[in-house]
Amino acid sequence: MTPHPRDAVERSDPVRLICLATIVSTHGLVRLAERYLPEFLSALGYGPIVVGLLVSLGLGTAVAASELSSADLGGDATPALESTTVAVLAALLAAVGLLAWAGAPTLDTLLGTPLTALGWLVVGIVLLQAWHVRGPTRRLWPTDTRAGPLPSSAADDAHARSDRTVLVPDKRTHVVLGALGIVAAAVFATTAVASADSIRGGFALVAATGAAVAIVGAVALGTVGVLPSLFGDPSEREERTGVTSIDVDPSLGVVRRAVSRLPDRRRWAVIGDALVRVAIAGTVPFLVLLVVDYRAIGLSIGGLSLAPAAVFGLFVLAEAAGAIAGAVASPTLASRVDRRLLLAVGLAGLSLLPMALVAAPASAAAVAALFGLLGFRTVIEPLRPTVGASARAAPVPGPRLPDEIRTAVRVAVVPAPLLGGILYAINPLVAFTVATTVGLLGVRELGRAFSFGRDA
Amino acid sequence: MTRASTPRRALEGAGDPLAGLSSVGHRRLARWHLALALVMGLWGGLDALFLRTALVTPGLEQWPAETYNAFFTTHGLTMLFLFVLPAIWGFAYAAVPPLIGTDDLAHPNLAVWAFWLQVPAALAVRSGTIGGILGVAGLEPIASGWTLYPPLSVLSPNPAVDALLVGLLLVAVGTAATAVTLVATIQRRREIRWLDVDTFTWTVLTAGWMALVAFPVLAAAIALLLADRTLGTAFLLGGRGPLVWQHLFWFFAHPLVYVLVLPPMGIVGHVLPRFAGRRLFGRRSSVYSTLAIGVVSFTVWAHHMFVTGVGPSVRTVFMFTTLAVAVPSSAKLCTWLVTLWGGSVRYSAPMIAVLAAVGFFVVGGVTGVFLAVVPINVRYTGTYYVVAHFHFLLAGFVGLSLVAGAYYWYPLLTGRRLEPGLARLHGWLTIVGVAVTFGALLFVGLAQLPRRVATYPAVYAPLQQLATVGAYVIATGQLAFLLNLGRSLWVGDPAPDDPWDLEDGPSHAREWR
User: Fold this and answer.
1) Are B459 and A110 in contact (CB < 8 Å)?
2) What domains appear along chain A, each with residue ranges and CATH number?
3) What CATH number did the domain enclosing B392 receive?
4) Contact flag B462-A208 (C-beta cutoff 8 Å)
């Protein structure tokens, strides 16, 4: 296959490589800071309900911002310039957001503001959504419902029809790039947290470093002037087939009508997958609390002893490694295993993970393996009905998912962390058990979709 | 008879590394000095990164206080004596001979000898760190601050302090010898009229003379300190001994700052007009202001000692002399700004660095003027305000001027080109990093937070974190520079004879002819 000429030029252009490296590193450090944020909140004296509230606030802000920004995509600026400018701004806002997190405990005293530490953490969360929604790495793993729908999937459809590949090469690259950024950030975060006497010091170091790398990324992007193509075509518009988001009326009635228009099996599949997403979204923010406070899983190798907070960084590393493995194994598995079976087993396994994390032996290796499995979900990600795979090769075939339903799924995930926090405050065991239950309910719905018509 | 100094001849004789130990081509000397400066600059920069990392949290989270003290001590010593000093001599060796129409140095063997003194000097200055890393018994990183104030420096049992003093003596001797070489070369080997000598050469000549006056004072002061430590004398202990050290030290150290600042001023005056498409406005006033700075800077040292009990009349005198230095400095600024006015500016990598350097010169200069005023000085001395002020000048102005010089003369030194995109990235990262780091520290200083303390009240954590973020950005910028350097030396394209397209410009310089 002949390489794309622009890719060849980029490979030989060191500035673009630096740009790519810094942006991917920023992505990793932002994600690591977010994963450690609940523990930082805990160190500041806030409980899991506040953690859940903040994470839900972030998700909600992202969904709202995503809808608003996609409505503003018109304009006279050239797409490449607009895209780069927005990416630079997103990187700078991410830097400010991370700095707000790092300095949250004392910013009020310094600036004379009445926000409190929690208020500054909220400011940071809101600013960071700019990175998630409009930043150059919004398509990198872990992609969640914040980034909004993918661009027009016509090309993807054609690709999927032609060779039945589960992950098109670009998407696999996005998974591997994102995971590599998180691997690098996890190594750094483990070192930083291990070297500091407290989680507050370690978190501040991770956040400050993330801010520095984000600024470097912004400067590099500004110097290059064009987004590296690995992040997506700079002329990419958030084109959508059919209705645009500005036309989307997210009211309940509209969503209900859109759902009712879906064929039954498609509807059950989407609802089932959405339930699994809700279950995972309600547990992931609390994994750090589970590992560090509830289970206190440390690690000793030879003379080296790592505190649970530092070990959590290694667990995230295992999760990223699992994501890479999932992306690599995806085409092989999809070509050899029945896609319905793959999706059902994958979602069932994913749903069981919260319980497994609570019940697993207090061994770092066992927990790391479970985190690795959590990351391995990339193997089924393109098959998931809520992603909107519209190819005929999808497990539940059908047209592209309407935007109203995509939006509804994204909105449905928003309160999950808050609910998870409330349950975690009651008892971590309750929270993780409920998550598994909800996930398994989702798998059951999916099973209905698969069994539909089989009896006839 | 002089020969052309085009990039094609940059690496003449470079193929025989052994001959290099005694060979004395001015370009080879330049490369030696710049290579030493690069290595030591990275080492000193790493110290800065560590100390900034330690300040991310208000408490002692990463290292003990003594380690933090060692970081700022070795950072200061390394950057001033082993990075900037060799760097300015390196650029002087690279550009001055062709600018004055010669290829020969006045005392070539002395120049070689002076350079090689710097290598053991560097090892001696850093012996505490090296010994600490290798676990050499007794050797610990020095933690007394680069000013080496007695009685701490006299009473410290750390043998690395003795090694440091010997190293500084070697630096003093080597610097004086280098200054002799450059001054003699300019005065005796010059093949052009004094009126035609360019502003960069004037700044090197002035800095050379200043070094010849200042460094012997440092050598004498260090001899007294060494005697106190090893012979049991008490020149600097008890009574007014520590004040004697301060007088001697600052009589040397403030002119040292101008030794380090004048050649970068020359670089700005040299590079700026070439990319502004104009001749330097007020060239003659620029030369006079260089000479004025060279003289007046020896009369300002006591403003570092306003809080040591100096009498009011003496303080007033030194306040006015210190303010007086601002006059020639402002004259230089005017020449640069007027040169830019109406010019046809080309935003090449050297020009971006020069323009930023001018901006930081304004910030560093204005904050310095305030420090000359006694009541303000008394309030802000020993705070981060001072740190911000001199880093705006040294990291912002001197650092970016050196970056400009490095890019501008790189083809002359190596015969190769640098990747312009990476150069611009390096420049912008350095500019943003310096602005963020020292802007944040300026605010910390305005709140009068004492410097050189490993811990601080938690309220300043956000600003300290911001400063650390900026430091990381600066460091990343230097990685881009290293990448560019390595790439150029490995696979870089040969530079053309006129790499900056100055041939038809109004300010085509002699070194490219």
Assistant:
1) yes
2) 9-146+153-237+253-451 (1.20.1250.20)
3) 1.20.210.10
4) no
